[in-house]
Fold this protein.
Amino acid sequence: MLPEAIEVMTEELAQVGNPSSLHSAGRRARRVVEESREQIAEILNARPSEVVFTSGGTEADNLAVKGLYWARRAADPARRRILVTPVEHHAVLDSAHWLHSHENADVSWLEVDGGGVLRPETLRAALEQDPGSVTLASVMWVNNEVGAVQPVAELAETARAHGIIVHSDGVQAAAQLPVDFAASGVDALTVTGHKLGGPVGAGALLLRRGTEPVPILHGGGQERDVRSGTLDAPAIRAFATAVVISAERREAEAKRLTVLRDDLIRQVVEAVPDALLNGPPPGPGRLPGNAHFSFPGCEGDALLMLLDAKGIACSTGSACTAGVAQPSHVLLAMGADEDRARGSLRFSLGHTSAQQDVDALGAAIGEAVERARRATSR
Amino acid sequence: MTSMRVLAALSGGVDSATAAARAVDAGHDVTAVHLALSANASSYRTGARGCCTLEDARDARRAADVIGVPFYVWDMAGRFHQDVVEDFVAEYAAGRTPNPCVRCNEKIKFAAVLDRAMALGFDAVCTGHYARLDDGALRRSVDEGKDQSYVLAVLTRDQLARAMFPLGDTTKNQVRAEAARRGLGVADKPDSHDVCFIADGDTRGFLARRLGAAPGLVVDRSGATIGRHDGAYAFTVGQRRGLGLDRPAADGRPRYVLSIEPVTRTVTVGAAEELDIRGITAQRPVWTGCDPLTGPRACEVQLRAHGAVHSCVARPDGDDLTITVPRGARGVATGQTAVLYDGDTVLGSATITATRAAVPA
């Protein structure tokens, strides 16, 4: 977390007051929430009333996918289709799967190319196949595993032309890419605190005026009845602080991360010449701080263990509940075979990353890959 | 004593957790690993049955937290299924009685896991088995009731050289007390029993689902048919119950399974004294407590887990081993392991392939 975010959160934790209460302590807390809302709205170019606070990205994704599906279907029962890419985060994927198995929704997959990108033609083709049956399309702003930036504005325009609403999971985007909600054309956008140097447990779903999902949480009617539950003023305040600071630093940070990341790629390829970079080539199509490699002949989880022992933290694809690494669904969707998908690691750089971190990886990766290859050949 | 890089296998139970804690205390650089072996990881344990479910993974993770060591989960479910579960089913189908714990130690814990550990830079694998290592040889644990030297006796000297059993010098009660003192929440967790991959304990049902109905006859040693069965795999030598006999024996005494012939699917039963075995043939001997035999050796033999120990003479017979049990042993099933002891030291082990009855047919 950013030190400034920790500071304001700590300050706020010492205060008492339910933002929904009418007495002075409540009103004070409420003011903190509303100021936070305004700050976030301003940075993301949305109206304050378009910001709905949630407990994080997963909740926001669930609210968007399920809530908007139910709302659109209720308004028009002929609409039962959801369009999603297979590289979405599980919070979107699993919500869509659940709607399919429990609510009789039809999930249409929007296939991505080898770099993980959804081309507007693919969306257009899927929409033209009976646009009247579609409830919504959900396409992430940028993929969290391979850093592929999606052509969101174009995609939103295509959807709009067919009268379809678009949700975008923007969790990975805000800290490193310019995110302008109004200009993007999307109808719903997920953001979360902990990817911006804010706390875990605070996020938001931005909903364009007129886009009303069926709520998932019923109760006290907070957030205009869209999302009930006592608002976590300390976390929200820290979230807003993180949004503001990361926006101020974004451009410089994106440049800094790009340099570090490009050097990381160079060092890894030098140490392991047959390492394969997954995702789009470094450039505007790729998240500045993201690198993702497949190491032929290795299992990602053996590599992860070896690097972890050297104090280098990275990640494999989707980790399941028992901690057993599964092959990355993103890589599989991009056309990789299972071995390649299992033998990959994501290296992400953020505001605490420095050159020495990249150098440490460069120094360790060669031997780690050698050992992991030995461990896998049985 | 040099500090080694030790991979501690944590099952989620109290023994492996305490063993890992001791390894840390002994000054080793310990990393904990939980082996995901279950095909159905999301099932909950019912009491003492079943193992390596998600609940166990969680218990193992918490134990690693308390002990203060890194924790990972290794997915060995595929290998386990192939080397242990499928072998289990195939052995029963062939009329033998397997011991899956022996197979697991031989193929998974001290092979697949050990190999992977070595490749990743570890020096040894530590487990919570109750057994002692003495100069490269295996010895019974101090707690005779819990002793697991029998299921470890299949390991070679090389494998034993890379094994660590910190609990061999302690009783189970002491281990539980120690776990409680160390703040390990699993101190009160019940031990897992029976076959770890048959969570409901119904081995017969498990085999029936995989092998289907394979009816055959139950006969006495004269060959007379005295009953019918739905699958020879449901029987094991020495078994008394569930024989499905048409009528009681002429002398009114209980009858026992003497042998199982898988091709004709015939199960032979007889009286208690007909169970007596004087001679055993065993294959692929592994020697850890002595050099490979070149001539006869008087020692003791244990013929099943928690079984009695019998005086015997073992002698090499080509690649096999012949074991003579002068006073006779009962309930000796092919497929089981014969473990030879000299006092409480394991000399070696071999897999039983044939038996010779005391009372000829």
